[in-house]
TrEMBL record:
Molecular function terms from GO: C-C chemokine binding; C-C chemokine receptor activity; C-X-C chemokine receptor activity; granulocyte colony-stimulating factor binding
Keywords: Cell membrane, Chemotaxis, Disulfide bond, G-protein coupled receptor, Glycoprotein, Membrane, Phosphoprotein, Receptor, Transducer, Transmembrane, Transmembrane helix
Compartments, record wording: Cell membrane
Gene Ontology annotations for the cellular component aspect, listed alphabetically: external side of plasma membrane
Summary of subunit composition and partner proteins: Interacts with IL8. Interacts with GNAI2.
GO biological process: calcium-mediated signaling; defense response to bacterium; immune response; inflammatory response to wounding; leukocyte migration involved in inflammatory response; neutrophil activation; neutrophil chemotaxis; positive regulation of cytosolic calcium ion concentration
Name of the protein: C-X-C chemokine receptor type 2
Family the UniProt entry places it in: Belongs to the G-protein coupled receptor 1 family.
Residues passing through the membrane, by range: 25-47, 59-79, 103-121, 133-155, 195-215, 227-248, 273-292
Domain of life: Eukaryota
G-protein coupled receptors family 1 profile domain ranges (all copies): 38-289
Amino acid sequence: YEYPDVLGSDPCETHVPGFSSLALMVVYMIVFVIGLVGNSVVVYVVCSMSKGRTSTDIYLMHLALADLLFSITLPFWAVDSHHGWIFGNIPCKLFSGFKEASVYSGVFLLACISVDRYIAIVKATRVMSSRHLLVKVVCCVVWLISSLLSLPVVIQRESFYAPDLNQSICYENLTGESSDRWRVGIRVLRHTLGFFLPLLVMAVCYGWTLVTLYNTRNQQKHKAMRVILAVVVAFILCWLPYNITVLIDTLSRGQTIELDCNTLYRLESMLEVTKVFAFMHCMVNPVLYAFIGQKFRNELLTALYKQGIISKKLWVSYRKGSAGSLASFRSRNTSMSA
């Protein structure tokens, strides 16, 4: 999300020099490349799984699609951070909608994964193939809701010239007394539905799940939770600082709290810094799967072997070198993240 102060309603000077720079553009482009390649590999691996695909694997694939969609928008925000918005009105609306929908769908899918793991581990419900249809329907509903929630931004965002910044921007072009209330309302919606409510669902579900795992000796289920919890922790570390900072900024703009000019300047600085970490989240999950997810590595090597990219000798030697990899590879009740 972006919240530049472009209306000139704040008498304080809150523009932070040095962030909208070539360095920031380079960082966004690096994140774009890693996110594009990494999430494409995740989607490819899940799609190439001929058997053993679990409900969690389907959710993780859609999560990769959400991160992939976010990654596609990054080159445009990279150029925007250095040169302003030079792409016109339609791309402004389109890529703003993509970014909004990808963030909503990502957090909703993480909440769905937490519920799925709660059902599988706490309720000890066996994952059946017939359940996959329900999971696919849930994913479609998640994408539909995310698309609907992104519509207000798509409708209101426009590309226009901002005299104070001396460049074109892609931002909500609102005028009148209701403009501030509209912006605060959209932010409250993002805070509640787009972060804190799903985070509460994850906390409750994973709380019960960890208690159950603590009282069991099922090592396979412990492995299945390892990367999933790492994914959730990474999401919190990347997005929580930004959401807290934006929440404080929202309360300030809504005049719920009053901040002096020095505090507003520091707040604007924190918005820029935490936004970079939030944007970097789209490349994190594939790295976690690769370094922690044993089954993901095996599935990736199998897919590469079937395509003739690696030799059979390398494929067999790696699987022989991975303790318990064959059992993990064949397990129908273990997610790709195990």
